[in-house]
């Protein structure tokens, strides 16, 4: 931890490992030296912060032409401060890719430079197929390819996941974007297939972001956890009811971000943009899911 202490004639800059003071400054030179030290301090602190990455995973229901410009702007305000956004349930047909492009354009007008990748439609039946998308800030995070649907899981998972490698300087990490079957159509079998694929892969720093339609406490995740993966959140509901009951609008804890060895969790939460029951109807026009947030570093 670093902190700066300024006295009238002395300046101390301290953290866990270093300490120095500037004594007997004359008033004519004090301001310049203060500014110089502040710039060095902020530059050092900013460099350290660049090693941290924030990721949001969000099932944005029916993400396509049904989303108005106002709703896209509201979505932007919810996610604009993160580094990477993983989106599930992008419409496979007309409007899905356009909505991702529009969202990225709005983000680009908020101050940071963003780019996006959208998957091909999943190899699913007509009313099940969808796309996945990633949107990310390009200042520090790079890609070297446009990602791929995991064809090895095509026959085992209705909406086979979308995998993309990211690079922070020379550090590589991979995010797998996943949307399982509904809870009443055996999502457990898909999670088992996904787990088998992951545990036989060589990715050392891997995150699985998505809507699993299963609570992370269920037994089906035990094998994944025994292979070094952890859930970002636990006992936190991520879906919205259609109507409030007893002043409660949250429903099921089924969205999550799992992270492997090589990933250090710094902070996680569910981003609740509803807050009170009176906002529920408007919130559900954006999605019936809440975003899951994870801030992490790479070993």
From TrEMBL:
<dbReference type="Pfam" id="PF03372">
    <property type="entry name" value="Exo_endo_phos"/>
</dbReference>
<dbReference type="GO" id="GO:0004527">
    <property type="term" value="F:exonuclease activity"/>
</dbReference>
<protein>
    <submittedName>
        <fullName>Metal-dependent hydrolase, endonuclease/exonuclease/phosphatase family</fullName>
    </submittedName>
</protein>
<dbReference type="GO" id="GO:0004536">
    <property type="term" value="F:DNA nuclease activity"/>
</dbReference>
<dbReference type="InterPro" id="IPR005135">
    <property type="entry name" value="Endo/exonuclease/phosphatase"/>
</dbReference>
<dbReference type="InterPro" id="IPR016202">
    <property type="entry name" value="DNase_I"/>
</dbReference>
<comment type="similarity">
    <text>Belongs to the DNase I family.</text>
</comment>
<keyword id="KW-0255">Endonuclease</keyword>
<dbReference type="InterPro" id="IPR036691">
    <property type="entry name" value="Endo/exonu/phosph_ase_sf"/>
</dbReference>
<keyword id="KW-0540">Nuclease</keyword>
<feature type="domain" description="Endonuclease/exonuclease/phosphatase">
    <location>
        <begin position="56"/>
        <end position="289"/>
    </location>
</feature>
<dbReference type="GO" id="GO:0006308">
    <property type="term" value="P:DNA catabolic process"/>
</dbReference>
<dbReference type="GO" id="GO:0004519">
    <property type="term" value="F:endonuclease activity"/>
</dbReference>
<keyword id="KW-0378">Hydrolase</keyword>
<keyword id="KW-0269">Exonuclease</keyword>
């Amino acid at each position: 931890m670093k902190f700066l202490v300024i006295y009238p004639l002395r300046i101390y800059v301290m953290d866990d490992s270093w300490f120095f003071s500037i004594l007997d400054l004359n008033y004519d030179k004090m301001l310049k030296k203060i500014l110089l030290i502040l710039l060095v301090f902020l530059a050092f602190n900013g460099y350290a912060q660049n090693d941290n990455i924030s990721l949001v995973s969000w099932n944005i229901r029916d993400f396509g032409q049904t989303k108005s410009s106002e709703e896209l702007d509201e979505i932007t305000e919810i996610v604009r401060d993160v580094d990477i956004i993983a989106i599930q349930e992008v419409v496979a047909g007309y409007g899905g890719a356009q909505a991702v492009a529009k969202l990225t354009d709005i983000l680009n007008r908020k101050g940071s430079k963003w780019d996006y990748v959208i998957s091909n439609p999943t190899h699913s039946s007509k009313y099940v197929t969808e796309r996945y998308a990633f949107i990310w800030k390009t200042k520090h995070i790079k890609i070297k390819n446009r990602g791929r649907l995991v064809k090895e899981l095509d026959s085992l998972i209705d909406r086979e996941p979308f995998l993309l490698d990211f690079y922070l300087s020379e550090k590589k990490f991979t995010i797998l974007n996943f949307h399982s079957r509904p809870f009443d159509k055996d999502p457990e079998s898909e999670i088992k297939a996904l787990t088998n694929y992951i545990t036989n892969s060589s990715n050392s720093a891997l995150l699985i972001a998505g809507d699993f339609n299963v609570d992370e406490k269920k037994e089906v995740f035990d094998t994944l956890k025994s292979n070094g993966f952890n859930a970002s959140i636990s006992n936190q509901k991520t879906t919205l009811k259609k109507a409030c009951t007893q002043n409660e609008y949250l429903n099921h804890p089924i969205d999550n971000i799992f992270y492997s060895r090589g990933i250090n969790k710094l902070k996680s939460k569910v981003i609740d943009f509803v807050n009170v029951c009176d906002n529920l109807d408007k919130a559900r026009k954006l999605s019936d899911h809440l975003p899951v947030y994870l801030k992490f570093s790479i070993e």
